[in-house]
C-alpha cells in the first residue's frame, strides 16, 4: 500500500441495541483474509478503502497506540504531527478526542505520554498547552478566563511560521494541572465550533540548537448530511462550517496529490491557515480520522465519501454519486459565493 502524506482512518461505532440484536448491518468494517489490519468499509453495495479501519471492538488504548504513540518522541525531536477528527453527531468523534471519565481519549493520553517521556529523558524539556476554537470564522482562546472574548489574529512570523498573537501557551508539569485547564477550555467552548488543541515541546538538540515540536489535535464541528439537505434556513454556524470543511478537504486532497504549496488554498479558511505548519513544516505525520455510526447510514456515507476523496483525490469515484467531486454541492453554492466574497474582502484587509 502506497504511503500517503495524509493518512485516512475510519472508526465505526454501533449502538448497543443494534449489537444485541445480532441482525445483519448495512455498514461494517471488513478485514481481508490474511491481513492483520482492516482497511475497508462495506456500506450497502459499496466497498470503500482506507488506510486503517476500526470497529466498535477497538479500544481507546488501541487507537492511541496505533495512531498517536509514535508522535510523542518525535515531538521532542522537533517534528510536527496533526490529527483531525471529522464526523457526524453521535458518531463518537468527541469521545475519540476527549474520552470519558472512565476511558481517556487521544488528548489526555497524549498529554500523559508527553509528561512520561519528559520525565524519563531530560528535565530541560518544556511542554506548553494551547487550546483555541474557531467559531463563525473567529478565533478565540479557550484558556483565556476573561469574559470579554477577543477575536485573535493569525499572523506569519519573520521566519515564515504561523503565529497567533495573544494566544495563551501555558507550561504543563503535571497531569492534574492539565486536566484542570482542559476542563476549563471545554466548558468555554461554543457549540458547533472547531477546537484545536496544541502541545508545543521546546528542547535543545545535541548541537545546542533549540528545537520546537508540535502535536495538533483537532475536533471539528459535527457535520450532519441530513441537516445539510433539509429545507430549514441555514444558520451562521452551518454556513461557516460548510466553507471550512470544503477548504480543508481541498487542502488535504492537494497534499495527497503532491501539489506544490502554491496550489494549496491554506489561506482560504482560518482553520487551514492555523494548521499550515502542522501539515507542511517538519512533518512526521498527518491523519484524518473519520468517525461514523451505523445508527445513521446517510450521515455516515457522506462522511466516508469526504474521507475517501481526501485519501484518493484523483481516482475515487463513488457509484452513489459523491456529493462533491471538484465543486461544492449545488445547494451550498449561494452560501459559498457569499462566503467567498467575504473571504476576498478579509484577504484584502
UniProtKB/TrEMBL annotation:
Where is composition skewed (Basic and acidic residues) in this entry? 339-349
Please list where the region (Disordered) is annotated: 320-349
The keyword ATP-binding belongs to this UniProt entry's keyword annotation: yes
Keyword terms:
ATP-binding, Motor protein, Nucleotide-binding
SMART domains reported for this sequence: KISc
Question: Hey, what's the signal peptide range on this chain?
Answer: none
* InterPro entries in alphabetical order: Kinesin-like_fam, Kinesin_motor_dom, Kinesin_motor_dom_sf, P-loop_NTPase
Query: Which residues take part in binding ATP?
Result: 87-94
Q: List residues of the Kinesin motor domain.
A: 5-313
BP terms from Gene Ontology: microtubule-based movement; mitotic spindle organization; spindle elongation
Entry keyword Nucleotide-binding: yes
- Any one GO molecular function term: microtubule motor activity
Q: Which Pfam families match?
A: Kinesin
GO CC annotations, alphabetized? microtubule associated complex
What family does the database annotate? Belongs to the TRAFAC class myosin-kinesin ATPase superfamily. Kinesin family.
> Which PANTHER family does the UniProt entry name for this protein?
CHROMOSOME-ASSOCIATED KINESIN KIF4A-RELATED (PTHR47969), KINESIN-LIKE PROTEIN (PTHR47969:SF9)
Identification of the protein by name: Kinesin motor domain-containing protein
Q: Which lineage do the record's taxonomy fields give for this organism?
A: Eukaryota, Sar, Stramenopiles, Oomycota, Saprolegniomycetes
Amino acid at each position: 500500500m502506497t504511503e500517503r502524506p495524509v493518512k485516512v482512518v475510519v472508526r465505526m461505532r454501533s449502538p448497543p441495541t443494534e449489537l444485541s440484536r445480532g441482525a445483519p448491518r448495512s455498514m461494517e468494517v471488513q478485514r481481508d483474509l490474511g491481513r492483520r489490519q482492516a482497511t475497508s468499509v462495506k456500506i450497502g453495495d459499496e466497498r470503500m478503502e482506507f488506510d486503517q479501519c476500526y470497529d466498535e471492538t477497538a479500544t481507546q488504548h488501541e487507537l492511541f497506540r496505533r495512531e498517536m504513540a509514535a508522535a510523542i518522541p518525535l515531538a521532542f525531536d522537533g517534528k510536527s504531527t496533526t490529527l483531525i477528527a471529522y464526523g457526524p453527531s453521535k458518531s463518537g468523534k468527541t469521545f475519540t478526542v476527549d474520552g470519558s471519565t472512565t476511558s481517556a481519549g487521544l488528548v489526555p493520553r497524549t498529554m500523559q505520554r508527553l509528561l512520561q517521556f519528559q520525565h524519563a529523558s531530560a528535565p530541560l524539556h518544556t511542554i506548553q498547552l494551547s487550546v483555541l476554537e474557531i467559531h463563525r470564522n473567529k478565533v478565540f482562546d479557550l484558556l483565556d478566563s476573561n469574559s470579554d472574548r477577543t477575536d485573535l489574529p493569525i499572523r506569519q512570523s519573520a521566519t515564515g511560521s504561523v503565529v497567533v498573537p495573544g494566544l495563551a501557551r501555558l507550561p504543563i508539569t503535571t497531569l492534574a494541572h492539565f486536566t484542570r485547564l482542559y476542563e476549563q477550555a471545554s466548558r468555554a467552548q461554543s457549540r458547533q465550533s472547531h477546537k484545536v488543541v496544541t502541545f508545543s515541546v521546546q528542547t535543545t538538540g545535541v548541537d545546542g540548537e533549540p528545537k520546537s515540536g508540535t502535536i495538533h489535535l483537532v475536533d471539528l464541528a459535527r457535520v450532519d448530511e441530513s441537516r445539510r439537505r433539509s429545507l430549514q434556513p441555514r444558520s451562521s454556524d452551518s454556513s461557516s462550517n460548510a466553507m471550512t470543511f470544503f477548504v480543508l478537504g481541498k487542502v488535504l486532497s492537494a497534499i495527497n496529490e503532491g501539489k506544490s504549496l502554491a496550489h494549496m488554498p491554506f489561506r482560504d479558511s482560518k482553520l487551514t491557515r492555523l494548521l499550515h505548519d502542522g501539515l507542511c513544516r517538519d512533518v512526521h505525520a498527518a491523519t484524518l480520522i473519520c468517525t461514523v455510526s451505523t445508527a445513521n447510514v446517510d450521515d455516515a456515507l457522506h462522511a466516508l465519501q469526504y474521507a475517501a476523496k481526501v485519501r484518493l483525490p484523483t481516482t475515487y469515484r463513488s457509484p452513489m454519486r459523491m456529493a462533491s467531486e471538484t465543486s461544492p454541492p449545488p445547494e451550498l453554492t449561494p452560501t459559498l459565493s457569499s462566503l467567498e466574497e467575504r473571504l476576498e474582502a478579509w484577504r484584502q484587509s
